[in-house]
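Input structure tokens:
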């Protein structure tokens, strides 16, 4: 067996881990995460191909190859589209539309694909890999990649090469390459022969290597990726940024994503589970096998609770067959969103037998639950109303870039959960498959989304160029991969596509895509997000769920736009859509688009509840910071307070997905000289902005929490009016400045914060006492800091796995000698590590910081900095992390790496 072979036991979160509290023991969750389908028994081997690659990137396509001339490269390029298109055939229903591979090989051969090509000077890399995240950032104007795409060098052509191991034992097997995501225009050669590819960077895809392999010899895999400039509205990343597997199976095996498990007639007493298993025989001769599927409780760790009828089938050479079977499960433990319900998982284990020998074993995690989409009540899960308290999340992981890392994604979900978030919209593309494993197990609801544009471009070189050829395969591949995840509650076929407003032609495309979704998964409703479609247009009629972006709370519907009267202003639209679609569930797939920079407060503060940011109101285009009084927004946006008002007036709405949960790379509205967004209520480094607490107060009304802003260290504001706001679920609050009451307030209807806008700054202490129903609820205080004296260091986890992937996220806080946070500290901090770990990246959440992420020196921003440390594979021991800065007492933390 190959040394890359994984044979980890299939284990799941124990319930005690899941339900311990909002902040579950993260180490345990991480340790229990199963690599997807990673086992090597019973005829199926799933071998990680993540290590040992050689990589080289050029900024232009100097290799004379292009996917298509639509990419507008030099005319000498050979266009390889007709060799790539056949890779889509599995996902094209009508045989007449499938693609015939041209005879022979392409005219142009390139040295990079040859075995004897010398790649010794190329960089050694492991996957998941994002070639751009190391930087450096492009600063200023006229650069190849500007603020929109994150100012990082994503553009150009990247080549990856490595050997693949196959032995004589693999004779007669089918051998596949499974790539979970490669950005973008992937083309794959094996032993100098073009195998195929997949242009869309967000899909997982499979290529059959079998015909091109030489058993017992060296086999050279070469993968070429190509990222055009002007191809994305945000940071796409570049490279093979998700896992890659070599899958070896008997010629008769369960197909790629070959199972589909659903449930019906669900109650707490019983449920019918239906399983569809697709089997294929890639050999030449006919084969008779038996198919058996068992169900196990507790995600697979629990007892066997049933088995489907064992079925005997004969498949002719080259044939595919589906087996449908049903099973009644007594007293099912239902899957539901945390914390209202419990995310119970089951595991279906399918085995194929030939002459009583197991020739394939395929595992399908699934959940049993019902979804009801109610136009007046919202979403019901297992008959119980669950308000969608969701956020939008992009695919990047901040300083780690697009390169997927389970622990980093899990941390994002943990911080979101602390706010009371129970739902994620995968804006705007298929996520890493492991992220859906996490949402299943942690109990988040998911809106899974596939496209940000269709035929109409948002950028000249975005994926509208390939939509005509690839819409069906992209969509079917997306659905087949993801449809067993119980966390997914709806499919989104598009975000703010231009076709929303093109009348019947746009609605026809929506209908075509919707029909495909129906074929692949009739169990969930379909939607597409609308920021511009109106209730009387054909587009919303082609959808099940009405998903509004910003229209729910109204667009440009604030006093600042009172003079605007040109159709760009929309009053709140919940009611209008509800009237036009009285049977459809309505939600907001994007709300707010509020902007802020953590720890930055600008004066004066608007006395309204929502205002577009500009240089005279909430913004500073010189520093490129936006005030964190959390009242300022993108010009089309609304503060959370304004969003909440419209939601409470329209209680039939199912809830919202805030734009956005975490900050992300690129799209730095309103300051395009910056690198990362201002929309998140959590910054890029994972530090909470004040807005986090505004959502927490609403989403966790039982949490005894009060949060004061701003900070209280203003040496230049003595005697000046400095408004103080408090976020809490309490209904009364009294603020004290140095012990003197500033008044006790009652929360009035349609207000979601306490504000004392006339407070005059004096150094000392701010203190708030809040009350609910007359009883003390929660308190908070903020103290004026003295000069910076020390660095306080805190890892998120003190024990991590020595597996080469696990991470510790370590926060460093600049404090005075008494331990008070120094809120505006921008001290340059230098990090060092000893022991079996390494620094992967540093950050501070400052959207304007163009210091490359791998830098070991990072300025604190608003008093905080982050260092991300990874344990080395296979070496246990203590990792000592130190943070030092001139004139300050250093901080030191110890993290245990354990095998
Ligand atoms: C929406 C869009 C998102 C993001 C957001 C904030 O219109 O769907 O992708 O761009 O605005 O600008």
């Amino acid at each position: 067996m190959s040394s890359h072979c994984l044979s980890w036991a299939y284990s799941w979160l124990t319930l005690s881990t899941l339900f311990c509290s909002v902040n579950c023991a993260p180490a345990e969750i991480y340790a229990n995460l199963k690599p997807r389908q990673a086992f090597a028994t019973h005829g199926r081997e799933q071998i990680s191909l993540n290590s040992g690659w050689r990589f080289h990137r050029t900024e232009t396509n100097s290799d004379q190859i292009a996917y298509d001339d639509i990419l507008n490269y030099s005319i000498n390029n050979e266009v390889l589209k007709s060799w790539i298109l056949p890779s889509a055939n599995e996902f094209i229903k009508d045989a007449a539309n499938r693609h015939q591979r041209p005879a022979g090989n392409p005219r142009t051969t390139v040295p990079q694909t040859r075995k004897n090509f010398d790649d010794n000077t190329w960089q050694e890399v492991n996957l998941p890999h994002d070639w751009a995240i190391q930087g450096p950032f492009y600063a200023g104007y006229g650069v190849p990649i500007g603020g929109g795409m994150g100012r990082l060098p994503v553009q150009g052509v990247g080549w990856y090469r490595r050997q693949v191991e196959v032995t004589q034992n693999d004779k007669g097997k089918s051998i596949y390459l499974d790539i979970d995501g490669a950005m973008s225009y992937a083309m794959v050669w094996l032993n100098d022969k073009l195998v195929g590819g997949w242009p869309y960077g967000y899909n997982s895809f499979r290529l059959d290597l079998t015909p091109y392999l030489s058993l017992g010899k060296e086999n050279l895999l070469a993968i070429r990726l190509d990222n055009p400039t002007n191809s994305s509205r945000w940071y796409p990343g570049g490279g093979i940024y998700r896992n890659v597997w070599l899958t070896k199976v008997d010629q008769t095996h369960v197909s790629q994503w070959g199972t589909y498990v659903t449930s019906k007639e669900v109650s707490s007493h019983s449920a019918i589970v239906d399983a569809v298993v697709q089997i294929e025989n890639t050999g030449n001769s006919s084969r008779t096998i038996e198919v058996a599927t068992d169900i196990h409780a507790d995600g697979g760790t629990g007892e066997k609770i049933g088995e489907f009828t064992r079925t005997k089938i004969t498949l002719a050479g080259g044939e595919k067959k589906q087996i449908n079977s049903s099973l009644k499960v007594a007293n099912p433990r239902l899957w539901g969103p945390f914390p209202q319900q419990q995310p119970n998982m089951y595991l279906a284990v399918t085995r194929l037998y030939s002459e009583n020998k197991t020739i394939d074993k395929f595992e399908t995690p699934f959940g049993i639950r019902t979804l009801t989409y109610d136009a007046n009540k919202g979403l019901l899960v297992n008959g119980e109303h669950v308000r969608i308290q969701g956020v939008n999340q992009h695919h990047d992981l901040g300083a780690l870039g697009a390169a997927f890392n389970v622990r980093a994604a899990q941390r994002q979900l943990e911080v979101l959960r602390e706010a009371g978030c129970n739902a994620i919209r995968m804006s705007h593309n298929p996520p890493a498959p492991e992220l859906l494993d996490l949402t299943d197990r942690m109990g988040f609801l998911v809106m899974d989304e596939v496209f940000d544009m269709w035929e109409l471009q948002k950028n000249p070189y975005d994926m509208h160029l390939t939509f005509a050829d690839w819409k069906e395969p992209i969509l079917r591949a997306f659905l087949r991969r993801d449809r067993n995840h119980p966390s997914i509650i709806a499919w989104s076929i598009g975000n703010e596509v231009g076709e929303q407003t093109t009348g019947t032609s746009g609605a026809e495309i929506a209908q075509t895509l919707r029909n495909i979704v129906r074929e692949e998964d009739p169990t969930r409703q379909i939607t597409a997000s609308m920021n511009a479609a109106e209730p009387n247009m054909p587009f919303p009629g082609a959808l099940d769920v009405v998903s509004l972006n910003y229209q729910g709370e109204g667009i440009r519907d604030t006093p600042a736009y009172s003079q605007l009267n040109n159709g760009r202003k929309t009053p709140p639209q919940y009611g209008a859509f509800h009237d036009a679609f009285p049977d459809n569930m309505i939600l907001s797939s994007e709300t707010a688009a509020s902007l802020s920079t953590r720890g930055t407060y600008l004066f004066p503060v608007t006395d309204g509840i929502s205002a577009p940011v500009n240089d005279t109101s909430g913004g500073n285009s010189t520093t490129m910071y936006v005030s964190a009084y959390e009242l300022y927004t993108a010009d089309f946006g609304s503060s959370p307070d304004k969003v909440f008002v419209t939601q409470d007036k329209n209680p039939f709405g199912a809830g919202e997905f805030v734009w956005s949960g975490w900050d992300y790379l690129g799209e730095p509205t309103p300051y395009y000289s910056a690198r990362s967004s201002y929309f998140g209520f959590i910054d890029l480094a994972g530090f909470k902005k004040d807005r986090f607490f505004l959502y927490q107060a609403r989403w966790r009304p039982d949490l005894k929490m009060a949060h004061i802003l701003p900070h209280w260290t203003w040496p230049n504001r003595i005697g000046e009016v400095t408004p103080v706001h408090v976020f809490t679920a309490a209904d009364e609050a009294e603020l004290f400045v140095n012990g003197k009451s500033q008044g006790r307030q009652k929360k009035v209807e349609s207000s979601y914060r306490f504000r004392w806008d006339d407070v005059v700054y004096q150094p000392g202490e701010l203190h708030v006492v809040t009350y609910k129903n007359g009883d003390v609820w929660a308190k908070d205080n903020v103290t004026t800091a003295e000069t910076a004296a020390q660095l306080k260091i805190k890892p998120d986890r003190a024990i991590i796995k020595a597996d080469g992937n696990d991470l510790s996220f370590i926060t460093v806080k600049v404090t005075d000698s008494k331990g008070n946070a120094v809120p505006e500290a921008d001290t340059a901090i230098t990090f060092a590590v000893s022991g079996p770990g390494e620094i992967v990246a540093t950050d501070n959440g400052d959207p304007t910081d163009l210091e490359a992420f791998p830098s070991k020196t990072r300025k604190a921003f608003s008093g905080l900095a982050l260092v991300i440390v990874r344990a080395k594979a296979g070496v246990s021991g203590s990792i000592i992390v130190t943070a030092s800065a001139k004139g300050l007492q250093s901080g030191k933390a110890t993290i245990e790496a354990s095998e």
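The CA atoms of residues 249 and 853 lie 41 Å apart. The pocket of beta-D-galactopyranose is lined by residues 427, 495-496, 531, 549, 590, 593, 634, 659, 667, 669, 679 (CB under 6 Å).
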